[in-house]
Amino acid sequence: MTQDVSRRGLMLGGAALGLGAATGFMPTSASAKAPFSALQVPYYYRFPVGKFQATIVSDGPLPLGEPSGTMKGITKDEIGKALTENFLPTDSIVLEQNVLVVNTGSRLIMFDSGMGTSKAFGPTTGRLLRSLRESGINPAAIDDVICSHAHIDHVGGLASAKGKRYFPNATIHLAKSDYDFWTDEKKLTGDLKAFVIHARQNLLPYKDRMKFFEDGKDVVPGVQAMFAPGHTVGHSIFIIKSENKSLAYIGDTTHHQILLTEKPRTEFAYDTDPKQAVQSRLKVFDMLSKDRVPFVAYHFPWPGVGNLAKQGDGYRFHATPMELVKIPPAKKA
Ligand SMILES: [Zn+2]
């Protein structure tokens, strides 16, 4: 009680001394009707992986529309029930685009690159360069861009519509099978036309800077590739290791934390080979859950970092709590 009284006394004293004006919090009659803010927090998040520093930068949300159009082998009612039980809207699913950047101390590596100039999924995508700027990362400082596959929402942010390279000093890493499939001129007239146009627009400007990784081999020191085909012919995941810590980057192994994760045998309309994608998904999920490896899922709710645990004949995603006061490891001198 005594303490309360003395604290109030101090506050009153402070106001009398003009401290309110100094801190900018002087109450005025106008502030009672302050306008709603149009500002949101910057779209990046930083955390350590051993001696490495990871940053998730967003390319913005990607609305995929009514889910029964993209999920196969599951009824509309089952989808509705699963979404409702998880307090999610049933009329449209919105995917995040969590681009992972890893600073190893000697290299700056980005995984995938977002939609870039394409507005095929609406105006909220294409935010990558802005998010990089907000996070203090200079695109010219990026040494490597490692792509999980060559779909529009993963390689779309590499170059401008005129073919200007946004990452002028980067080597682009991709599975050769995916490069060949999605830049194939013969597919410019078929169903996959839009995807092929954008893969060509973004990958061909780096023709002399392409490097093709192999299954089970290091892409760059500290990052190992693992083929996980089906979503595309060369779709791959990556294991990042520093000291005794690991982080997996799983690209499009799953697109949704509930629908394709709790029921992992569900097929996805954008898969090149949906049956093979299910097999790869089960294999990757088994590894992540058994070894308790934390991972980044490109399309999971922001920032997409967490773990998987076995649940019945599916898996449950456990998001890692964000730590906003932890100081990232110091930069090497
Ligand atoms: Zn994707």
Structural account:
- With 333 residues, the chain is of the alpha+beta class.
- The protein has a domain at 41-245: Ribonuclease Z/Hydroxyacylglutathione hydrolase-like (Metallo-beta-lactamase, Chain A, 4-Layer Sandwich), CATH 3.60.15.10.
- 23% of the residues lie in helices and 24% in strands.
- The chain has a seven-stranded mixed sheet with strand order 1-2-6-7-8-9-10. Strands 11-12-13-14-16-17-18 form a seven-stranded mixed sheet.
- Strand 13 (236-242) and strand 14 (245-249) form a beta hairpin.
- Zinc ion binds at residues 151, 153-154, 252, 298-299.
- The site of zinc ion has 6 residues, from helix 5.
Quickly list its features.
8 helices; globular; 333 residues; seven-stranded mixed beta sheet; disordered N terminus; 18 strands; Metallo-beta-lactamase, Chain A; alpha+beta; binds zinc ion
What's the quick description here?
The protein has 333 residues and is of the alpha+beta class. The chain contains eight helices and 18 strands. Zinc ion is lined by residues 151, 153-154, 252, 298-299.
- Major sheet summary line: 7 strands, mixed
Ions, cofactors and other bound molecules:
zinc ion
Order of helices and strands: HHEEEEHEEEHEHEHHEEEEEEHEEE
The radius of gyration is 23 Å
Task: Itemize the secondary structure elements and their pairings.
Elements: H1 2-16, H2 19-23, E1 44-49, E2 52-58, E3 62-65, E4 71-72, H3 76-85, E5 93-95, E6 98-103, E7 108-111, H4 128-134, E8 144-146, H5 152-155, E9 171-174, H6 176-182, H7 193-203, E10 210-212, E11 218-220, E12 223-227, E13 236-242, E14 245-249, E15 267-268, H8 274-290, E16 295-296, E17 305-311, E18 314-319
